[in-house]
Amino acid sequence: MTTSFAHFMHAVRQLDYGGPEVLQVAEVERPVPGPDEVLVRVRAAGINPADSKIRAGLPGHRSHQPPFTPGLELAGEVAAVGSEVTGLGPGDTVYGFVFSPHGAQAQYTVTRTDLLAPVPSGADLIQAGGLAMAGLTAWQALAAAQVTAGQRVLIHAAAGGVGHLAVQIAKARGAHVIGTARSEKHAFLRRLGADEVIDYTSADFTAVVQDGVDVVLDPLGDDYGPRSLTLLPPGGTYIDVRQPNPDRAEVRAKAQEHGIRFVDVTVAPNTADLTDLVTLAARGQLRVAVEHTLPLPEVAKAHELIETGRVKGKIVLVP
User: Going by C-beta distance under 8 Å and a sequence separation of 6 or more, which residues neighbour residue 192?
Assistant: First the structure.
C-alpha cells in the first residue's frame, strides 16, 4: 500500500554539470514510491567512477538533467512499498541499484524492486552499499567468460572497485588469479586470494606472464587491450568492462583476427544475480574493501578521491 509522505530529508543535489563543486547537500521533500517501487532508508551509498562521469556530463552519461540527486547503488531498509509490490515490506534489508533522478545519495530514495535483492541477516550494510555496481560488473563479466576451476585469469587494476571483487569471484570459481596493481597494493591483493601480482609501474605484464592466460578482465582500455591480447591463445577470452570505450572496435577486430573471444559487459541489474552475489559475500567468499567512509556533506571529497584512480576498493557515503 502506498503511503503519502510530507516529510523532508537531506540529499546530495547535482545543480549543473561540472566539477565536484556542483554537488551540494540540500533539504528536499522525501520521495513517494510509485506502484512498482519501494522507499528505502539509505544506510550506505557507494561511489563509482560512473558518478564522476555523470557529474561532469560526459557523452553517454547524461541520463538526467540537473538538478537531480546522484548515486547508483545503495543498501538500507525498506520504509514503504508501492501498491503493486510483493515480496518486500517495511523493515526488510535490501541492496541494489537506483536509476532515477531520486538517486542513492540521500537519506531516502525510491527504486524498482527488480533492481534490489534482500541482504542476509547480519550482513555489513556499509559493505553492501558498495557492492552492487562493481560487484555485479565483475560477477557478470566472469560469468560471461565462463571462468572455471584451473583457468588462469589476468585482472587489470586488480585493487580497484571492480578489480578487487573480480579477484575474489574468480578465486571462488577455482581460477588461478594474476592481478596488476602498484606494489603498495600487492599485500592487499594477496589477502584477497591473488596468486600472482605484477607492479605495472616497474614491469611489463606481457613479459612477466610467461605461461599465458585463459581470460583477461580489463577495466582500463588504452594500450592494455592490444597488449593483453598477446597473452591469450585462440579460444581465450578478453573482457572489456569499460563503458563507453572509444577503442573497442579496434581491439575487437584484433581479437577476432586471432581467434580470441571478445566480450563487452554492461552491467544488467536483476534480482537473481544480485542475490547470488550477496550470497557469496554471506558465505565469506567475497568482501567489499571500503577504503573511505564519508558523510553526505563530504560528497565532493569523495569525487576528488575517486578521480585520482588510486582508491583501493570502494568509497561509501553514509547518510
Answer: 164, 167, 168, 171, 287, 289
Multiple choice CATH, 8-131+288-318, 3.90.180.10, 3.10.290.10, 3.40.50.970, 3.60.15.10: 3.90.180.10
- Burial string for 138-156 (b: 16+ CB within 10 Å, else e) reads bbbbbeebebeeebbbbbb
The residues with which 45 forms a beta bridge, in sequence order, are 317
Question: How does the average pLDDT of the chain come out, rounded?
Answer: 94
Q: Which residues of the chain have pLDDT under 70?
A: 1-6, 243-246
Question: pLDDT tens digits for 118-158?
Answer: 999 888 999 999 999 999 999 999 999 999 999 999 999 99
Tell me the residue length of the chain.
Answer: 319
Architecture of domain 134-264: 3-Layer(aba) Sandwich (3.40)
The residues, ordered by sequence, that sit 6+ positions from 139 with a Cβ below 8 Å of its Cβ are 165, 169, 273, 276, 277
| Spans of all domains in the chain | 8-131+288-318, 134-264
Is the separation of the CB atoms in 267 and 137 below 8 Å? yes
Distances (CA, A) of 37 to 1, 48, 74, 142, 222: 11, 23, 15, 30, 39
Is the N-terminal amide bond of 67 cis, ω within 30° of 0?
yes
